[in-house]
Amino acid sequence: MQKKAASVSRIIATIINECRLFLKDIAGLSLLLLMPIVLTVIMALIQDAPFREYQNITFDVLWVDNDHGQLAKKLQEDFSQAKQFHLVTSVDDKVLDDAAVKALVQKGKYQIGIVIPNGLSAEVINSANQIANDIGSKIGAPGKLPQRESRPGNDIQVYFDPAAKQTFKLSIMNALEKFTTKSEAELTLSRLAKTMKSQDGNANDSVNIDLQNRLRAVGIREASPVSASIYGATNSVQHNVPAWAIFGLFFIIIPIAGNMIGEREDGSLTRLKLIPGSYFDILFGKLFFYVMVGVVQFYLMLQAGVYLLPHLGLPALYMGHAPISLFITAAVISLTATSYGVLIGTVFRTANQALPFGSISIVILSAIGGIWVPIQILPHALQQLAKVSPLHWALDIINDLFLRNGSFYGILPKLSLLLGFSAVFFIIAGIVEKRRKR
């Protein structure tokens, strides 16, 4: 009986002790409770977007009309009236042409570009004449409309940002298919109404079936804004491996923050500070070491996509044709992640504060940065918020190199942004540590 009472006493004492430890670190307890709430709210907003299936989202669509015919005007009218699309016919006061559309979409400045080919309306009218003549011969209606052989190659060209996800493409292509089918049907039926003056009520079902099968003069073809070899790499591996490699790289903040807090607690940081010189020298040494670790980690994850995934039945990762630019990018991304880890390890005093905030903040930054879902389908406010996430810019740079055929000078502005993030994190960490009171 006494042993049982003693055991209960030890359990109660342990509970009381843990409560005291938690109460000593109110900031850590608050972060432990509040950060999951923030994560829940952010993820609810983000994950709501795919369930809406792009229905309540407006996309800027580059529009080039080389036809100027009835069907092209009808298509433009329908697209302009749709809430999902905003047609852009000129950029920087310059009317768009095919080359401009390809260039803007390739650079990722616009997600979609549509080019209406010359002669599209004439092909639809010719198809309507063929259908009217066939129906007329079956129901005995008089008249013979002019017709010719159908001419292939009148497909509407649709260009997508090479970094666009496949689900995004399918949703947009389905919407385009509905618009073009509707416009073609209306134009064809109006042509029939003007030319067919009588109709036999005994017309059989084969006429209707024939009409449905023949009403396909307009084709929609996804075209590549970049070379075929690069464009062919837009698969699940190409999108997911770099995204999750960046996500994994940023989790280097966990060991960095943990080590820095441990150094303060065991006194080793104090001994380092006793060495003559600036504390920024100490931070620079930490940065250099962890940047090298991050670069190695990043390349290992990419190499898994190149060599391991093909053995599992998946395509191999295409790593672009700019290895030097890729190495510089990996180093800059690793520097940004390391600087953020140093900031977390400096600002927070205990592991209970740093680790929950650091890990959950990375999940939030990756979610709003396009690692999980395309930012194009997010609410407008979250799309703007994505710009404060370094993971968004890191993924955009990798997409430039791997998918958009980007050059070093093309990615330089985005690299500068990441270096700006690093500098801000690094400077704040240095200032906070220098002013810390012991």
TrEMBL record:
Molecular function terms from GO = ABC-type transporter activity
Looking at the UniProt record for this protein, which Gene Ontology cellular component terms does it annotate, in alphabetical order? plasma membrane
Q: Please state where this protein is localized.
A: Cell membrane
Provide this UniProt record's keywords sorted from A to Z.
Cell membrane, Membrane, Transmembrane, Transmembrane helix, Transport
Q: Which stretches make up the ABC transmembrane type-2 domain? A: 200-436
For this protein, the parts annotated as crossing the membrane are: 21-46, 243-262, 283-302, 322-343, 355-375, 411-432
Mode of membrane association:
Multi-pass membrane protein
Residues in coiled coil: none
Which InterPro entries does this one have?
ABC-2_transporter_component, ABC2_TM, ABC2_TM_bact-type
User: Record's Pfam families?
Assistant: ABC2_membrane_3
Q: What is its main location?
A: membrane
Claim: Disulfide bond is one of the keywords in the record: no
Q: Which domain of life is it from?
A: Bacteria
The similarity comment for this entry is: Belongs to the ABC-2 integral membrane protein family.
Stated name of the protein: ABC transporter permease
What species was this sequence derived from? Answer: Pinibacter aurantiacus
